[in-house]
Amino acid sequence: MKTYFLFIFCYVLLASCQPKQEQSFGQTSTSSDSFIKVDGPNLITPDGEKFLIRGTNLGNWLNPEGYMFRFRNTNSASRINQAFCEMVGPDFIAGFWKQFKDNYVTIDDIMFLKSVGVNSLRLPFHYKLFTDEDYMGLTADQDGFERVDQLINWCKEAGIYLILDMHDAPGGQTGDNIDDSYGYPWLLESEISQQLFIDIWVKIADRYKDEPIILGYDLLNEPIAPYFENLDELNSKLEPLYKKAVAAIRQVDNNHVILLGAAQWNSNFKVFSNADFDDNLMYTCHRYGGEPTAEAIKSYIDFRDKVNRPMYMGETGHNTDEWMAAFRTMMEENNIGWHFWPYKKMDGSSCVSIPAPENWDLVVDFVEADRSSYKAIREARPDQEVAKKVLSDFLENCKFSNNEINHNYLNALGLGTK
């Protein structure tokens, strides 16, 4: 008997010393029948109904872009941060970014989007949110999971599905400002960057494998811009990278749809040989401008029909209300779901607009000025207190309660306040 109790004591002691395993979000196992699934060219809900994506992108929130602040040349997250730090100092800007993430999208925004008829959202995010790299005011212990967890809870409350979109990948997948990298799609050539890309997606998939409000994982936004002389070589590397990433994700998550974007702004589907390597794939295209007709996106439709998988317009917009209404109607008639870009920004062409703070031009003038030397920075820098007030005012203006609803824009998308 003493031996038995000694064994139990040692077992309990040993168990208490074992490291805790990180549990998935929600911490409960969910039946695979609870998730949206691919069925030929359609998405099917757990109730067996066809699901057509209708919504918007939460752009600029977790991946700042210059034009949404009225900047032109300073057009990526790292360049914006550099300019802001030069203007008012890194400590102030670290606090600015925290409040920016707190204010830019809240439950008020999500409930508004639910009220106008949105059924799903796309969340663009920077890979650095899931590392210890310097990003948006944090130099370690990034808050990516905290932000996504919170958004998931809001979406669950609203009954809105969510697509997670890696908009900025390690090394850069595009080679332009939109991936916040170094002017070339190094991801396609760097094994180190590719491994980090895959590791982050596996970490995300493992955490959310049992969360059915997530519709799927959009692995890369707009890979491989069309500017490079070795375009064919770069294009040839995209599908193998996707296959490697999908295989790794499936080791931890067989529930979620995986979305694959085409090369050259999500437009060139010739880079794909087949869709047979996974039974829960869909493809995503982007298009801005051109004629709002089915003929204009015939290559997308033909590819969809060839592989017999869903096609989804992950980004479109920035056009007249008439164009957007016609394009949206055409997509729905051709079984193509859509997320218009973006949900909010300054100056409209979005669901809601952020009013420009007084003296915002002072910020724009500095950010766009010549800052190529320390002397130039000193000469261009505005009054510190004025600049800090302008940035603080922006943080207030970006809250939903201070936004302007663009009813004509929403009507063009077939949405509207109830």
Strand fraction: 5-15%
Q: Care to count the β-strands? A: 14
**How many alpha or pi helices?**
15
Integer average pLDDT: 93
Uncertain spans, ≥5 residues at pLDDT below 50? 1-23
Largest sheet: 8 strands, parallel, barrel
Task: Spell out the key features of this protein.
3-stranded antiparallel β-sheet; globular; 15 helices; 418 residues; 8-stranded parallel beta barrel; alpha/beta
Quick rundown:
The protein is an alpha/beta fold. The chain is 40% helix and 14% strand. It is built from 15 helices and 14 strands.
Description:
This protein has 418 residues and is an alpha/beta fold. Helices cover 40% and strands 14% of the residues. Strands 4-5-6-7-8-9-10-11 form an eight-stranded parallel barrel, surrounded by four helices. Strands 1-2-3 form a three-stranded antiparallel beta sheet, with no helix packed on it. A hairpin with a 5-residue loop joins strand 2 and strand 3. Helix 2 crosses helix 3, helix 3 runs parallel beside helix 14 and helix 4 (107-115) packs parallel to helix 5 (144-158).
List the helices and strands and how they pair.
Layout lengths: L1 H16 L19 E3 L2 E3 L5 E2 L2 E4 L19 H12 L1 H15 L2 H9 L4 E7 L17 H15 L2 E8 L22 H18 L5 E5 L12 H6 L1 H12 L7 E5 L1 H4 L14 E6 L11 H10 L3 E5 L5 H13 L3 E4 L3 E3 L5 E3 L5 H9 L5 H7 L3 H14 L6 E2 L1 H6 L6
Parallel strand pairs: 4-5, 4-11, 5-6, 6-7, 7-8, 8-9, 9-10, 10-11, 12-13
Antiparallel strand pairs: 1-2, 2-3, 13-14
